[in-house]
Design brief:
alpha/beta; Rossmann fold; Serine Threonine Protein Phosphatase 5, Tetratricopeptide repeat; about 55% helix
Length: about 525
């Protein structure tokens, strides 16, 4: 049943006065405009073009097909409304919704007194467990029995490296196939071979789907057994292979993620949510964020004592706080509360630990951050998200050389690295005034809608004297963040705490005639 006009306006007042919206003037203005136009019978005039003119002050030449300004802000508003109704607005008498892909809002009476808006049922019956990976002893394909130790060493070292990921790892001392593996619960199998010609040795690795025997991935490495350091090679290669197989977006999780999407499950386990988390923080698009946001908070409502879900939800509040330019105290408090709760529930889970490391950075708890890192680094997986997160915050805490060493390890041992990690590489070279190298890294930070990429390029290009290019990047930045002149210093200051470094960036903006407030 559609609510009355007065009830809709009362709900609009409740939303815009709430903690979720109080410090977000752009979101309040956009929501009020959409609701008012719709209620007053002007729904047919709610278009990307008219929103650009009436809400964001764009000129008559504004083209919503070329500019993502309206689309990006609509995505953010949609996500905020979902958060509101999953939290303090759960029992509001009226629900205001903006359907995906549209700008015209819909209004409904919330007769259930707090219905589940996510449309996703979270399973409590399905087992929420990590996959089981079996590691077979590598085969020595040569006639040299002295290479048996090498084959055994690679398989054992690889099994040890895989245990640092959220897998159940079984290391076998003999060969198994087919039903024998499935009877032991093995879902994925890692196997390998050692071959040699003279002093040249080749070690081959392959990942197999134990359910049907299909090969999912394969790779090989060559070295000279007489000249190379075998222990160093074994450690380096197995660490890299383990990350390619078991990383957050490694081959196993890629396969599981695509299988989950293909099956279109009506219910999601904690492991499904974790897979979606890995995907979202790797691609970091507005579309992935909105869909995933709904599922996480619906899951958390049904399972409030899940350490993983609390940590992931905490990350959403961190992003909300940072996006507000440190003006959203409610989001900051929720971020800290959920991060600490997740740690109290499971202090050993790596997603929980890396999330708490981020909380330590935001609250300037450097000693605790270093202590947590030191406690976990022996079993910290060499993965782009976990190790990359520690490296990022280590650098931003001022431990640049230590953090850069971790970051180099991430890039060296992983094929799939989140683009946002190039941002910290950019800052490393930027602060050393190596602007050419900084620009190479800044150009790799290409995530539509995220202001950091254009901001880095503006600062670097301006210091290189390439002002027309910097001004072009600034035009893109304003499409994504129309309030950047007013809030840019605060937005960047959420993470860049070194006064000298922030001043260096601001100087770049000033070189193109932009003074950030």
């Amino acid at each position: 049943m559609e609510p009355e006009k007065q009830s809709v306006f009362e709900e609009l007042d409740r939303i815009t006065a709430s903690e979720d919206f109080r410090n977000k003037p752009v979101m309040r203005k956009l929501l009020a405009y959409l609701v008012t136009e719709c209620v007053e019978g002007r729904s047919d005039q709610i278009k990307g073009y008219t929103i650009g003119l009436d809400v964001f002050g764009q000129g008559n030449s504004f083209d919503p097909n070329r500019s993502a300004l309206v689309r990006n802000n609509a995505v953010r508003l949609r996500a905020l409304l979902k958060t509101y109704y999953l939290g303090i607005g759960k029992k509001d008498p009226v629900v205001i919704d903006i359907p995906k892909g549209k700008y015209v809002p819909q209004f409904s009476t919330n007769n259930a007194g707090g219905k589940d808006l996510s449309g996703v049922e979270i399973s409590t019956a399905r087992a929420s467990r990590p996959p089981t990976v079996g590691v077979l002893p590598f085969r020595n394909r040569t006639h040299h029995s002295k290479l048996n130790y090498l084959a055994t060493g690679f398989s054992r070292e690889l099994a040890d490296a895989l245990t640092k990921f959220e897998f159940r790892v079984l290391c076998f001392d003999e060969q198994f196939e087919g039903d024998a593996l499935r009877d032991k619960g093995v879902e994925f199998l890692v196997a390998g071979d050692v071959a040699a010609v003279g002093n040249q040795v080749k070690v081959s690795f392959r990942l197999v789907n134990a359910m049907d025997g299909s090969q999912l991935w394969g790779e090989s490495v060559r070295f000279n057994i007489e000249e190379d350091d075998l222990f160093e090679i074994q450690e380096r290669v197995t660490g890299r292979v383990a990350s390619l197989v078991g990383g957050e977006y490694g081959r196993v999780n890629q396969f599981r993620y695509q299988a989950m999407l293909s099956s279109r499950p009506r219910s999601l386990s904690e492991q499904d949510i974790l897979l979606k988390h890995y995907h979202h923080v790797t691609v970091l698009t507005d579309e992935s964020m909105v869909a995933f946001h709904d599922e996480v908070f619906a899951a958390l409502e049904k399972d409030p004592d899940s350490a993983v879900l609390n940590a992931i939800a905490s990350g959403f509040y961190q992003n909300m706080w940072a996006f507000s330019g440190a003006n959203d105290d409610h989001a900051l408090q929720q971020f800290a509360r959920l991060a600490e709760k997740a740690y109290s529930l499971n202090p050993n889970h790596q997603v929980v630990l890396s999330n708490l490391g981020g909380k330590c950075f935001i609250f300037n708890e450097k000693d605790r951050f270093i202590r947590l890192y030191e406690q976990s680094r022996e079993w910290l997986a060499n993965s782009p998200l976990r190790l990359g997160s520690w490296a990022l915050h280590m650098c931003l805490f001022g431990e640049w050389e230590r953090g850069k060493k971790l970051l180099d390890k991430v890039f060296e041992n992983n094929l799939h690295v989140p683009l946002w990690l190039h941002g910290i590489n950019c800052l490393y070279y930027f602060r050393l005034h190596d602007y050419e190298t900084a620009l190479v890294e800044a150009n790799k930070f290409q995530i539509p809608g995220l202001f950091w990429g254009p901001a880095y390029r503006i600062a670097v290009l301006a210091h290189l004297g390439r002002l027309p290019e910097a001004k072009k990047e600034f035009a893109t930045l304003l499409e994504w963040r129309p309030d950047f002149v007013e809030n840019g210093r605060r937005l960047m200051g959420c993470y860049i705490r070194e006064d000298g470094l922030l001043d260096q960036i601001l100087e770049g903006f000033e070189n193109i005639g932009v003074k950030l407030a």
